[in-house]
Every structure is written in structure tokens, then in C-alpha cells.
Write a structure and sequence with these properties.
GO terms for molecular function: methyltransferase activity. By secondary structure, the protein is an alpha/beta fold. The chain contains ten helices and 14 strands. The N and C termini lie far apart (about 40 Å).
């Protein structure tokens, strides 16, 4: 078993006396190969049946709940979320099809006659653009700060909690899970719950780190950052999931490279000040327009390059 060196400065302090053995969270297999010891001293195993990578033994559910109760302030370190409603286009951009996931959905569904649920939406870029395209959008989130931010952004149907907290009569054409299913100890429960809330022929959109990226990456970046992740899916495990959920795979691709940003070094007073200055400059219209032109100009080259990568998995599963 290979010991991995620290990369992400945000190192969770798990109580190592309060761990529990896990079966594979997808197929239930118990005996699997130990591959890595993460920087937080948790073991990464790889399932020989469905190929998912997962943490076992893992922190207890109580530890996980305590961790997420302080997730924004202590781990994700979300900046103060205040919004100027007159500058929403400056904040979110005006290219509503700029996101690869939205463009792919546009080839499958009629936004103006579809309902969407984004689970764990965080900063609500995805919901904002879907609503601008005519979608009837909803969101659930455990972060009150993110909910307030979304409502300030004109997104009214966002709620605290999980899928089961929504009125039972609510059904959706698309349920999106962006950077979500790698977090819970029981991701299959979450996915089953989501499928129950789909209309006939509805779709689940999944965006998650690709465990198999480690086979191409000598630095094993996937298992050294975002150490709250409890499992890492692969193309094979997505196919296994689809079979288990009685769903068809409409889309499945590997995409992109790691974007480490400021994960490798904590914010200092200087970097914080520079970040605030950049944020203010972005609101200055000439600077915003210059950045928008640069982004659109480089977009094709950027996407062409990311198509060569495989750090993320992007899947769309359709309910049969």
C-alpha cells in the first residue's frame, strides 16, 4: 500500500478511534485491494467487482455529520456571499450554454418544458443558467449561506435539506448531482432516492472525480485533495450503477484536468487582499467585458485541451 504525501492543505482531523469498516458502497463486496494510504491516514480500496475506489475503514456517520456542519467555515472556506442583483450577468456570465453539461442536456431535453432539481447546488451557477434558458428549477442544499445567495440571485425554489424533504408530489425531468456522489457514505441510497423522484424517462446528471485518473497520474492527485471524498467512481462503476438502477447510459465521458487553485497553500493576508481586489475589478464593466471577450476567445482551445483529460466523469443516466 502506497503512502501519499500531503497536497491539499485542508487536512481533515478524523478521530481514528471512531472508524468503521465499509463494504463496497456500490456492489457490497467486502474483501478488496488496499491501494493507498491518503494524507489523512484513511485507506483507499479498489473493488474488484464494480471497480469503484472507496475509503474503508471510514469515519463514522456522526463524524461525517459533524464535519459537514462546519463545512463552509472550516473546510470549503467559502467567501462572504453577498450579491448585487443589478450585476447578476457580471457574476454568472451571459453565455448560458457555456457549460458543457448544459449543452449536452440541451440536445436531450426541452428546457422550457422541463423541471430540474440540483442536489447540493453550492454556488448556483448551474441553476441560474438553467432558469435563464426557461427551465423550471429547484434546488436542495445543507448550506444556509448558499441558499441565501441563490435566493438573492432570483432562484426562489431552493430549500434546506435533502431530496426527501421536498413535497412528495414534486417530480423532475432532470436531477443533477455536481461534485456530490463522492461525498456520502451511502451514495446508492441517494441515487435510488433521486430515481424515485424522476418523471418517466427522466435523467440523472452526474459530475464527479474519476478514480481511474490515478492510473495516468504519477502524483495520485485524486486521492490527495478534497479528502472529504468517501468514494471515487470510474466508467466501469458508472455502468454497474446504471444496471443496478435499471437505467440506460445516455452519455458518459472522461473530461478535464485537476484545478488545484489555492488548495495547495492556505490563504494569507496578501492573497486574500488580492482576491478581493480581483473580485471588485471583475465588477468594473470594462474589465468584465475584456474578461468576457478573453473567455469566449479561449473557449474553444480550452475545451479542446480538456477533452484530452480524464480527471472528471460526466454521465447522464436515463430512467427506463
Amino acid at each position: 500500500m502506497k503512502k501519499l504525501e500531503k497536497l491539499d492543505y485542508r487536512l481533515p482531523k478524523w478521530d481514528m478511534t471512531d472508524l468503521q469498516e465499509r463494504h463496497c458502497p456500490i456492489c457490497g463486496t467486502l474483501e478488496n485491494k488496499q491501494l493507498y494510504l491518503r494524507p489523512d491516514n484513511l485507506v483507499v480500496k479498489n473493488c474488484g467487482v464494480c471497480s469503484v475506489y472507496y475509503i474503508s475503514p471510514s469515519p463514522s456517520p456522526e463524524q461525517i455529520n459533524q464535519f459537514y456542519a462546519q463545512y463552509d467555515s472550516n473546510h470549503r472556506k467559502t467567501k462572504d456571499l453577498r450579491i448585487n442583483k443589478s450585476k447578476l450577468d457580471l457574476i454568472f456570465g451571459t453565455d448560458h450554454f457555456g457549460d458543457l453539461r448544459i449543452r449536452k442536456l440541451a440536445s436531450m431535453v426541452d428546457f422550457k418544458n422541463s423541471s430540474f432539481l440540483d442536489v447540493g447546488f453550492g454556488i448556483p451557477y448551474f441553476l441560474y443558467h438553467l432558469q435563464k434558458l426557461g427551465g423550471n428549477v429547484f434546488g436542495v442544499e445543507y448550506d444556509n449561506q448558499a441558499i441565501d445567495y441563490a435566493r438573492q440571485s432570483g432562484l426562489d425554489n431552493v430549500f434546506f435539506g435533502k431530496i426527501s424533504d421536498l413535497p412528495k408530489e414534486l417530480k423532475f425531468d432532470v436531477i443533477s448531482m455536481n461534485d456530490l456522489i463522492e461525498h456520502p457514505l451511502n451514495p446508492l441510497d441517494l441515487l435510488n432516492e433521486a430515481f424515485e423522484r424522476l418523471n418517466p424517462g427522466g435523467r440523472i446528471l452526474i459530475w464527479t472525480p474519476n478514480g481511474d485518473f490515478s492510473k495516468k497520474d504519477p502524483n495520485s492527485t485524486t486521492f490527495r485533495v478534497d479528502l472529504e471524498h468517501m468514494q471515487y467512481f470510474t466508467t466501469k462503476s458508472i455502468a454497474y450503477l446504471a444496471s443496478k438502477l435499471n437505467a440506460s447510459i445516455e452519455h458518459l465521458e472522461c473530461y478535464g484536468f485537476p484545478a488545484l487553485g489555492d488548495l495547495v497553500a492556505p490563504q494569507t493576508a496578501m492573497t486574500t487582499a488580492m482576491s478581493k481586489l480581483k473580485t471588485r475589478l471583475k465588477d468594473f464593466y470594462p474589465v468584465h467585458m475584456a474578461n468576457e471577450f478573453k473567455r469566449l476567445y479561449l473557449k474553444r482551445a480550452y475545451e479542446f485541451n480538456n477533452r484530452k483529460g480524464s480527471y472528471h466523469l460526466f454521465a447522464i443516466l436515463q430512467k427506463k
